[in-house]
Amino acid sequence: MPPLPQEDLDLILRETAPLWDELRSQRIFLTGGTGFFGCWLVESFLHINRALRLNASITVLTRGPEAFARKCPHLVLDTALTLVKGDVRTFDPPIGSYAYVIHAATAASAAQLAEEPLAMLSTILDGTARVLEFAATHGARKLLLTSSGAVYGRQPAGLSHIGEDYTGAPNPLDPASVYAEGKRTSELMCALLASSVPVEIKIARCFAFVGPHLPLDTHFAIGNFIADALAGRPIRIAGDGTPARSYLYAADLAIWLWTMLLRAPSLEAFNVGSEEALSIRDLARSVAQILNPATEIHVARAPGAGPQHRYIPSTQKAQTKLNLKQHVPFEEAIRRTAEWHSAQER
């Protein structure tokens, strides 16, 4: 896959530059390095490490170092990067101390949720336990958990944007709650660690995103719509198109996650995402208009009479406490994502 856009790497550097002095000559341990989040964090770190001459390093846990090398061949020769092969649930810890730990493993896989829900739960819980044990025994000072907005359960119809103070929860008797309940319990496990070990715990509750490295052929509607528009296929919406989502560009995601790791108060959760709501139907129209206005859009059924399903964060806490904001507009995010994937095809 091609490198990330230079303008994105420069944006991440510019917006986080004052934060990095504490990482000089330090080591970071990251899980989930081959995923969407992980690829952005690894490449942005290596770029910043070179630009600011931090003399820092990052060790990335991956089940397939060879797959990472094929995916990001432009990164593997950087001497600041070390790949460690292992399963997040059972990995052998690398030797030495790591002051910073980022637990970004476990993708929100719809296929695994449907076919192997117990394996998904095991990966989330046992993986978190293993990472926390590693942090406790390897000198971690700060740990970032990439949690999920799914921990809130179904967003009430009357709540336009869900905030961190909302105390709802997923239905524990619904097998579809596996991912959400796993993330909720992971947050609790982090809190328990912080009560016994002097490590600052940062919680990022992540919503929906778009950008390079987002798969265009899985369960992510926005990825599928981009793929359809680029290929000249009709965009097909299986439902009625009314559920509302919002999408933060991945460069902003990286800025927010690095800021949370380095600046967020310990044991406070922060939503990560965009507040700009779009229905799935309007999302399809927007993607088509931006990339290929001739794209046909087919919606399986007319809207029903029930309340609109929403998955939209309030990010006021992140804006107020951490001075974070969305830098890349939605339309530009779609263009950059499409251009990167098109470059990959070439």
From TrEMBL:
<dbReference type="GO" id="GO:0048040">
    <property type="term" value="F:UDP-glucuronate decarboxylase activity"/>
</dbReference>
<keyword id="KW-0456">Lyase</keyword>
<dbReference type="InterPro" id="IPR001509">
    <property type="entry name" value="Epimerase_deHydtase"/>
</dbReference>
<dbReference type="GO" id="GO:0070403">
    <property type="term" value="F:NAD+ binding"/>
</dbReference>
<keyword id="KW-0210">Decarboxylase</keyword>
<dbReference type="Pfam" id="PF01370">
    <property type="entry name" value="Epimerase"/>
</dbReference>
<dbReference type="InterPro" id="IPR036291">
    <property type="entry name" value="NAD(P)-bd_dom_sf"/>
</dbReference>
<protein>
    <submittedName>
        <fullName>dTDP-glucose 4,6-dehydratase</fullName>
    </submittedName>
</protein>
<feature type="domain" description="NAD-dependent epimerase/dehydratase">
    <location>
        <begin position="28"/>
        <end position="273"/>
    </location>
</feature>
<dbReference type="GO" id="GO:0005737">
    <property type="term" value="C:cytoplasm"/>
</dbReference>
<keyword id="KW-0520">NAD</keyword>
<dbReference type="GO" id="GO:0042732">
    <property type="term" value="P:D-xylose metabolic process"/>
</dbReference>
<dbReference type="InterPro" id="IPR044516">
    <property type="entry name" value="UXS-like"/>
</dbReference>
